[in-house]
Amino acid sequence: MPDEPSASNVRELTPTVEAVRAALEGLPREPGVSKPDPILAGSHIRRRFGGLVAVQVEHIEVQRGTITALIGPNGAGKTTLFNLLTGFDQADSGDWTFEGREVSKLRSYKVARVGMVRTFQLTKALSRMTVLDNMRLAATSQRGESFFPGLLKSLWGGQEKANTDRARDLLARFNLLAKQDDFAGSLSGGQRKLLEMARALMTEPTMVMLDEPMAGVNPALTQSLLGHIKDLREQGMTVLFVEHDMDMVRDISDWVIVMAQGQIIAEGPPEEVMADPAVIDAYLGAHHDRSLTESGESLQED
Amino acid sequence: MDWNIIFGQALTQGFGVQAVIFALAAIGLNVHFGYTGLLNFGQAGFLAIGAYALGVTVATFGQSLWLGVIYGLIGSVIFALLLGVPTLRLRADYLAIVTIASSEIIRLIVRSVTYRETFGGSDGINGFASEFYELNPFSSGLALGPVVLSANDLWITVVGWALVAVALLLVFLAMRSPWGRVLKGIREDEDAVRSLGKNVFAYKIQALVFGGVIGTLGGFVFALSNQSVQPDNYATTITFFAWAVLILGGAARVFGPVLGSVIFWFLLIFVNIALVEMVRAGYITFLTSTQVGQIRFILLGLSLMLLMIYRPQGILGDRKELALDAR
Question: What domains sit in chain A, N to C, each tagged with a CATH number?
């Protein structure tokens, strides 16, 4: 909702991109570095699948109000880390806090309720529900969501109307308003990604976790999706996203965390990280002889 | 052969108490499967709980029938919790396995020799319905052309359809509410609903209880109309007939189960009587009238297969919704 001072907006007073990036500028470029104002901080996060250590993160912090990218080759453990942080998978060990609150033992729906809302790599549009119902479902603390009050429309009708208006505003922002009465299953892949993001925003989150928001989206929609993600930052939300598309990472992220083989191997602003030989190693599998910590010389990219 | 009588019999059954029982059972299944996507193959268990609660309360413990109604509803809630709490965190198929086993466990317990004193063994219980029929306001039966009902039949049929109306109203109100919307979301993708901060497990339990209680109402009607409870009436056949009724009428439609039940019983009885009459009149020579009893179920299976192929969404369903299933 443009120009509507909701509680979260007033508190954050929309820091500029420059201010956000300046706060991170002076940080040492080392894996697991502490941030000045972390919204999410975790330590010793570990998850094994049988003999495979999928995630082994010593320390991770995400700065409030930034767009942070989580990159890494296939099988690096990015999605598993996402699942752990959002309660969709149980860690073998480790703990993490969100806005200073311990959330590592919370079930997934409670994680969403404290304001950390995720999307999925394979889009989960609720196919046999209309686009508008997808949105309305996401609204929080609805009185009609309990069985007995739900039977009496007079108890929830007003709230439903307000939610519907808010849903329409969001749909209009995401260019989906014309589709509001269609089944979500009839949308294209890119539109489903948009719907999923809009639906996540319907919960009024403080942090949005996007798992490969660009996967399968056609180039025409890419730009508008990028714009939407930048908008989230402007509204004071924190974004953590997993992505393979390096152009996109370079374009919108303030900070990049690189994972390989379950560990964080590098952190820093996008340009620096992408020039880091250890990162290029991890992606391309070249330079096997170099150690991961050696990052003195930077390769020029073309 | 008298088509009037054949139609009359079929209509009597199609709008009779049998249709009421299966309509209630299928309305419950509709809440479970149609709206929430839960695979409950133990609806017979919920009916058995209702029926036996009446029988045991009155005949075994000598208490009021209305107390039995309350016990039945409580028992139904407890049964739903017993089924749901261990299985609803798991994948959908586990609920299917557990429910079909549990409904059989109930049937085998009530027919066991050990508990004959309480449940009446394989003979069941009778003589508990008088309190209900004393309230019968109809002094005479109904004779409407070929449809003939005794006063008692008329009373239970009217009460039964009133219960169906109440159940339909509750389902309609519940499914237009945000509560029902969460259920539909769970049917589509429960992880997505979880990621939006809804307690999926609690909603599934509530849906299981809601649909189960409606099934139990069907059990009350079954017991009162027979004025007896017999364990083998509550075998898995009930469950599968109720599923057939639901699929025929159209899942996730408020009126689907009722329409399905009426058509199901009308056709089943119509085919049966028509075939028997045709055999008797000599039009059909390759069947005996005892074989007709089996033939109608073969025809039932065949028509269900055809239905699934040519109209899988049922009579009231929306083909568009079904075509979207590919995610």
Answer: 7-125+206-284 (3.40.50.300), 128-186 (no CATH)
